[in-house]
């Protein structure tokens, strides 16, 4: 029977050391301390079969989060599946900027457009419990994942399935947030770093020959009709889309349009106030 140490050593020949260790821990239920102190512990056959399958799939490029079905974001563990994007630390900038605008308000209504796994809506619901949160996504599969995450984490979020503002007719909000698809169709990044395994409609607007801004254009143009006076729009975008995003905001009547960088210093979130 294969031991923990042998399984780990074999996997490290094929995949990253940390990935190998984490997959072995998920497959066997052991801890990092177990691996260090008792590497001679035998791995039961079903656990080893699961581990071997995961190593195969990870070696083929499938993201670790999809293999184990979860990812950590902002101190919480979120369920993920190939129906939704894997949470990325850059999106914390969007949430930080939203929290800054909400923490002084006793009540507010917020909508998260293109919620995916629900990380933005749920994080805001947990950190600003006085705020009413609505979350929209076109994908029924994404809504299902997000609803499960909200239930597990005890977050009060009203989920709606539909295309951007379509499920919100007649409603007004104090803040609109979004992490929309913004990678241009055909961008070489879409073919590497595990992105082929993620939902393409959540990454790119799939507009042939486009610049990746099609969804952002729709959101910015429609947002004023769904905002209260003084309301804010904040959205994540690509590293080279800051200037274009500010221009769109200004053209739509938003004042003081700005772009905020992520921790790497890259343009990441733009916004403005109505």
From TrEMBL:
<protein>
    <recommendedName>
        <fullName>Release factor glutamine methyltransferase</fullName>
        <ecNumber>2.1.1.297</ecNumber>
    </recommendedName>
</protein>
<dbReference type="Pfam" id="PF05175">
    <property type="entry name" value="MTS"/>
</dbReference>
<dbReference type="GO" id="GO:0032259">
    <property type="term" value="P:methylation"/>
</dbReference>
<feature type="binding site">
    <location>
        <begin position="114"/>
        <end position="118"/>
    </location>
    <ligand>
        <name>S-adenosyl-L-methionine</name>
    </ligand>
</feature>
<dbReference type="InterPro" id="IPR002052">
    <property type="entry name" value="DNA_methylase_N6_adenine_CS"/>
</dbReference>
<dbReference type="InterPro" id="IPR029063">
    <property type="entry name" value="SAM-dependent_MTases_sf"/>
</dbReference>
<dbReference type="GO" id="GO:0102559">
    <property type="term" value="F:peptide chain release factor N(5)-glutamine methyltransferase activity"/>
</dbReference>
<keyword id="KW-0489">Methyltransferase</keyword>
<comment type="function">
    <text>Methylates the class 1 translation termination release factors RF1/PrfA and RF2/PrfB on the glutamine residue of the universally conserved GGQ motif.</text>
</comment>
<keyword id="KW-0808">Transferase</keyword>
<feature type="binding site">
    <location>
        <begin position="179"/>
        <end position="182"/>
    </location>
    <ligand>
        <name>substrate</name>
    </ligand>
</feature>
<feature type="binding site">
    <location>
        <position position="179"/>
    </location>
    <ligand>
        <name>S-adenosyl-L-methionine</name>
    </ligand>
</feature>
<dbReference type="InterPro" id="IPR004556">
    <property type="entry name" value="HemK-like"/>
</dbReference>
<dbReference type="InterPro" id="IPR050320">
    <property type="entry name" value="N5-glutamine_MTase"/>
</dbReference>
<feature type="domain" description="Release factor glutamine methyltransferase N-terminal">
    <location>
        <begin position="6"/>
        <end position="69"/>
    </location>
</feature>
<dbReference type="InterPro" id="IPR007848">
    <property type="entry name" value="Small_mtfrase_dom"/>
</dbReference>
<feature type="binding site">
    <location>
        <position position="137"/>
    </location>
    <ligand>
        <name>S-adenosyl-L-methionine</name>
    </ligand>
</feature>
<feature type="binding site">
    <location>
        <position position="164"/>
    </location>
    <ligand>
        <name>S-adenosyl-L-methionine</name>
    </ligand>
</feature>
<comment type="similarity">
    <text>Belongs to the protein N5-glutamine methyltransferase family. PrmC subfamily.</text>
</comment>
<dbReference type="InterPro" id="IPR019874">
    <property type="entry name" value="RF_methyltr_PrmC"/>
</dbReference>
<dbReference type="Pfam" id="PF17827">
    <property type="entry name" value="PrmC_N"/>
</dbReference>
<keyword id="KW-0949">S-adenosyl-L-methionine</keyword>
<dbReference type="GO" id="GO:0003676">
    <property type="term" value="F:nucleic acid binding"/>
</dbReference>
<feature type="domain" description="Methyltransferase small">
    <location>
        <begin position="98"/>
        <end position="187"/>
    </location>
</feature>
<dbReference type="InterPro" id="IPR040758">
    <property type="entry name" value="PrmC_N"/>
</dbReference>
């Amino acid at each position: 029977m294969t031991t923990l140490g042998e399984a780990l050593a074999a996997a490290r020949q094929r995949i990253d050391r940390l990935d190998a260790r984490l997959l072995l821990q998920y497959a066997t239920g052991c801890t990092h301390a177990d691996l260090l102190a008792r590497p001679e512990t035998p791995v039961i056959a079903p656990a080893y079969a699961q581990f071997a399958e995961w190593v195969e799939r990870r070696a083929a490029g499938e993201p670790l989060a999809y293999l184990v079905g979860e990812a950590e974001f902002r101190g919480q563990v979120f369920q993920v599946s190939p129906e939704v994007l894997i949470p990325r630390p850059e999106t914390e900038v969007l949430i930080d900027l939203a929290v800054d605008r909400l923490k002084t308000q006793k009540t507010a209504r917020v909508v998260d457009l293109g919620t995916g796994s629900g990380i933005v809506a749920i994080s805001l619901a947990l950190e600003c419990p006085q705020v009413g949160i609505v979350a929209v996504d076109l994908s029924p599969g994404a809504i299902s994942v997000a609803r499960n995450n909200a239930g597990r984490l005890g977050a009060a979020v009203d989920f709606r399935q539909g295309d951007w503002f379509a499920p919100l007719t007649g409603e007004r909000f104090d803040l609109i947030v979004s992490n929309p698809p913004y990678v241009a169709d055909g961008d070489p990044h879409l073919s590497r770093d595990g992105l082929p395994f993620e939902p393409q409609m959540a990454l790119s607007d799939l507009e042939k020959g486009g610049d990746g801004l099609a969804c952002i254009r729709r959101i910015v143009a429609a947002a004023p009709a769904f905002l209260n006076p003084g309301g804010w729009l904040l959205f994540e975008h690509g590293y080279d889309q800051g200037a274009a995003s500010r221009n769109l905001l200004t053209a739509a009547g938003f004042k003081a349009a700005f772009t905020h960088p992520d921790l790497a210093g890259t343009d990441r979130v733009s916004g403005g106030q109505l």
